Structure formats: structure tokens, C-alpha cells
């Protein structure tokens, strides 16, 4: 077991989760994955926290994937299924969270590391970042949501090439194919991620929650139903104190102060 394998802190309205196993490039073993899940749930349940940032400890890796030493010790299909269940549940929880999430990718994001960032909302990459779905080379496939999220987030031919070859790609390429938002110097990455998180945290948490639900639910609906869903939410949004505050602040030429009500 790893002591402090997940570091969790709250800075203002921003929660910061750090995978802290630098000796193994922050690989996710089952206990570490479960610790990450619990730390995330705590931040989700903390009303002070409005945005959650993920990063890796050290300057080499975000997350170098599932823990291969643990995988080799697994015995029988039931164990793999158990791990698959855990990692799917945890990454899905991140994906459907009402709170916006940001990946600050500070190095290797391989296998489960790339799959982790695929389940987060915004991805900022250090210029040192190196991504891949290398599972094909290990005789397995990206089974932590990778096949399904990748194909939905980048053009299908690109997703297929990256999964079939397992090749690494750098931060510039990740941005070019639409998998990440921007590339930053490694030294600035965390500060920039926290600054972006703080800017988002200044907005109405209630509207962010409704917006995330509209995006999430609408993605699985036909366009007409998705638009109807959005339209139904408009009434909810305008009938909030935050909407009154935001519009009043604009008219009074001052900064709004949102409370999430
Ligand atoms: N798991 C366990 N240990 C790891 C991992 C990992 N994923 N990655 C690195 N390590 C360990 C190394 O074994 C090494 O340990 P030791 O010091 O005891 O020898 C230590 O970290 C340092 O690593 P290296 O010496 O290899 O460091 P380098 O700087 O030379 O290389 C790399 C860094 C490129 C990150 C290299 O370590 C590497 O290629 N790692 C493996 C990356 C990989 O293949 N990841 C995908 C794993 S599979 C996966 O994620 C699937 C998850 C979902 C499956 C769900 C279905 C059940």
C-alpha cells in the first residue's frame, strides 16, 4: 500500500488532486484508483469546491497507465473484470460529475493515463507531455473507456490509427487532433491550470452544473431531443438568483458575485 498516494488539497474554490507515485510514474494500482475515487468524492461533496484539477507528482508523468506489476499478478478473468469494473466506474464518475474538471498533464499520460484525461473536461498539456494508448503492444486493448471515448473525441480514422499502432504522440499533436486544449511550458502548467480553474470557479456553480448536465445528457440524444432538453433547462437557469445577479451586475457595470442559488 502507498502512503499518500493521492494528495488532495483545496485552494479557494479549486480542488487539486495529485497522483503521487512518482517512482512508478504515477501508475494506477487498484488501491490508488480507489483512493483517487474517494478523494474525488470528497471534493465533489465539498460545497466550497467548484472546479477540480488533476495532475501527477514530479516532472515526468501525469499517469503512466494501469499498474502493470499488479496486472501481471492477477489471476483469472474475474480479477480483470473486477479491475475493469472499478476503473470504468471511477472514470465515468469523473466524466459525469456536476463539477468541471481540468487535467494538468505534466509528462507521460500512457494507457490509463490517456484514458483518464479522456474522461476529464479540459486538458492542458505540458510541452513535455507524451500520450498514447499503447495497450495493443501489451497484448491487451484500451479497456478503461479508451476505445469508446477516443473514437467519440477525435476523427475516427485518427482514433483507429492511434489504437491500432499504440504509438506515442506529443502535446502539439494532441491539440492538433482535438484531444487537448493547449500546450504550456512545463514550469507554467500547474499555475495556468489553477488560474483557469479559479476563473471558472468565479462563474455560477449552478449554471455550470446545469450546463454540464445539458452537455452530458444531450450527447446521447438525437439533435431534436437534445435541443428540447436544452430549451427545458433555460427556464431553470433564468429563474435563479445567479441569473438575476449576473444580469444586474452587467447593467450596473460591476463584477458579479455568484452564490450558486
Ligand atoms: N505500471 C507499473 N510500473 C510502471 C509503469 C506502469 N504502468 N510505468 C512505469 N513503471 C515503473 C517501471 O517498471 C520502473 O520500475 P523500477 O524502477 O522498479 O524498474 C519505474 O516505473 C520507472 O520506469 P522506467 O525505468 O521504465 O522509466 P523510463 O523513464 O525509462 O520510461 C515510461 C518511462 C515510458 C513511462 C515507461 O516506464 C513505460 O513505458 N511504462 C509503461 C507505460 C504503459 O505501457 N502504460 C500502459 C499500461 S496498460 C493500461 O494502462 C491499461 C489500463 C486499463 C485496462 C483496463 C482493463 C482491465
Q: Can you tell me the CATH architecture of the largest domain?
A: Alpha-Beta Complex
What small molecules does this complex bind? Answer: octanoyl-coenzyme A
Looking at the structure, what is the overall shape? globular
| E-strand count | 10
Distance, first to last CA: 42 Å
How many domains? The number is 2
Structural class from helices and strands?
A: alpha/beta
Beta content comes to 15-25%
**Could you state the order of secondary-structure elements as H and E?**
EEHEEHHEEHEEHHEHEHHHH
**Poorly predicted spans:** none
CATH fold description of the largest domain: 2-enoyl-CoA Hydratase, Chain A, domain 1
Radius of gyration from the alpha-carbon trace, in angstroms: 19 Å
Average residue-wise pLDDT: 95
The proportion of residues forming helix, as a percent range, comes to: 40-55%
Major β-sheet annotation: 6 strands, mixed
What do you see in this structure?
The chain has helices at 30-45, 68-73, 77-96, 112-118, 146-153, 156-165, 171-176, 189-201, 205-219, 223-238, 241-251; strands at 6-11, 14-19, 51-56, 61-63, 101-105, 108-110, 122-126, 130-132, 169-170, 182-184. It has 261 residues and is an alpha/beta fold. The strands form two sheets. The chain has a six-stranded mixed sheet, with helices on both faces. Strands 4-6-8-9 form a four-stranded mixed sheet. The radius of gyration is 19 Å and the shape is globular. The mean pLDDT is 95. The structure holds octanoyl-coenzyme A. Octanoyl-coenzyme A is lined by residues 24-25, 27, 64-69, 80, 83-84, 87, 108, 110-112, 134-135, 138, 143-144. Octanoyl-coenzyme A (CO8) binds at residues 24-25, 27, 64-69, 80, 83-84, 87, 108, 110-112, 134-135, 138, 143-144.
Amino acid at each position: 500500500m502507498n502512503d499518500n498516494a493521492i494528495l488532495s488539497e483545496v485552494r479557494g474554490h479549486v480542488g487539486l488532486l495529485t497522483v503521487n507515485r512518482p517512482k512508478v510514474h504515477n501508475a494506477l494500482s487498484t488501491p490508488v484508483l480507489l483512493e483517487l475515487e474517494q478523494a474525488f468524492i470528497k471534493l465533489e461533496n465539498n460545497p466550497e469546491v467548484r472546479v477540480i484539477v488533476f495532475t501527477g507528482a514530479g516532472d515526468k508523468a501525469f499517469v503512466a497507465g494501469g499498474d502493470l506489476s499488479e496486472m501481471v499478478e492477477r489471476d483469472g478473468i474475474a480479477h480483470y473484470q473486477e479491475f475493469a469494473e472499478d476503473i470504468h466506474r471511477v472514470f465515468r464518475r469523473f466524466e459525469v460529475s456536476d463539477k468541471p474538471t481540468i487535467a494538468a498533464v505534466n509528462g507521460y499520460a500512457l494507457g490509463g493515463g490517456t484514458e483518464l484525461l479522456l474522461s476529464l473536461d479540459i486538458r492542458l498539456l505540458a510541452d513535455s507531455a507524451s500520450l498514447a494508448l499503447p495497450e495493443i503492444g501489451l497484448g491487451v486493448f484500451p479497456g478503461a473507456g479508451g476505445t469508446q471515448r477516443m473514437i467519440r473525441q477525435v476523427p475516427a480514422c485518427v482514433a483507429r490509427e492511434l489504437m491500432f499502432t499504440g504509438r506515442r504522440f506529443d502535446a502539439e499533436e494532441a491539440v492538433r487532433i482535438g484531444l487537448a486544449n493547449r500546450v504550456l511550458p512545463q514550469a507554467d502548467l500547474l499555475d495556468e491550470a489553477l488560474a483557469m480553474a479559479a476563473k471558472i470557479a468565479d462563474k455560477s456553480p449552478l449554471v455550470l452544473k446545469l450546463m454540464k448536465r445539458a452537455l452530458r445528457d444531450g450527447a446521447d440524444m438525437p439533435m431534436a431531443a437534445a435541443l428540447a432538453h436544452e430549451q427545458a433547462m433555460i427556464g431553470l437557469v433564468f429563474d435563479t438568483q445567479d441569473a438575476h445577479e449576473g444580469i444586474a451586475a452587467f447593467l450596473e457595470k460591476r463584477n458579479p458575485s455568484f452564490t450558486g442559488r
